[in-house]
Amino acid sequence: MMITEWRNKLFSKPYKAITPLEFGMTHSEVIAVLGEPDKVSEENPPLIYKYSDVELHFNSIDDYKLFLVYSDESEKLVIQFEPELYDSLEKLRCELTHDNETYCRLFKEGHKLLSAYKTNGGTQANAFNTVCHIYLDNRRKGGDLEEYREDLIGDWLDCLCGWFGNKDIVIW
């Protein structure tokens, strides 16, 4: 993928989807998607890859995995992985069985978590990309139950993006 195309998509949506990148990617996985960076930080291994005016930050504490997308050159951009939000929603995802009552309860609990995250100053981009990471992790697992869980996660993403017809449950 050309970096210009990825960058333009990144800045074009209010929820700032970092796809096809995802949190937790390694240096080599990022390079496989975006190619070699324009610049890298001096640490070995590097903590920052720079593509055009966008920096990708890797966490030395977590095996140098992608956790932050940042830019302050042309347009301010800070998108970071939210581990507490991830863990809370992942716990709900794991509770889901093939039971519609459970689905409704877990949807509402996830919605409350996401609404509280927003109320406490969280950003739409951080929430969207963190929930998207749960979605992609779930998708890699496969199976019938994971497809049902994918629907739950997709509904949370819809709340974050405003894609629900019922505007009372849209969070941003």
Short description:
With 172 residues, this protein is α+β, with helices and mostly antiparallel strands. Helix content is 51%, strand content 13%.
Blueprint of the fold:
Layout: H1 3-12, H2 27-34, E1 39-40, E2 48-51, E3 54-59, E4 65-71, E5 77-80, H3 83-95, H4 100-119, H5 124-141, H6 144-161
Antiparallel strand pairs: 1-2, 2-3, 3-4, 4-5
Question: Termini separation (Å)?
Answer: 29 Å
Q: What is the string of helix and strand elements?
A: HHEEEEEHHHH
Strand residue percentage: 5-15%
What global shape is seen? globular
Low-confidence stretches: none
Q: Into how many domains do the coordinates divide?
A: 2
Q: Output the radius of gyration.
A: 17 Å
Oligomeric status: single chain
**Secondary structure category:** alpha+beta
- Mean of all residue-level pLDDT scores: 92
Helix content: 40-55%
**Biggest sheet overview:** 5 strands, antiparallel
The total of beta strands comes to 5
Major sheet: arrangement of strands: 1-2-3-4-5
Number of helices: 6
Notes on the structure:
With 172 residues, this protein is of the alpha+beta class. The protein folds into two domains: 3-80, no CATH class; 83-169, no CATH class. The chain contains six helices and five strands, in the order ααβββββαααα. The chain has helices at 3-12, 27-34, 83-95, 100-119, 124-141, 144-161, and strands at residues 39-40, 48-51, 54-59, 65-71, 77-80. It has a five-stranded antiparallel beta sheet with strand order 1-2-3-4-5. Strand 2 and strand 3 form a beta hairpin. The two termini are 29 Å apart.
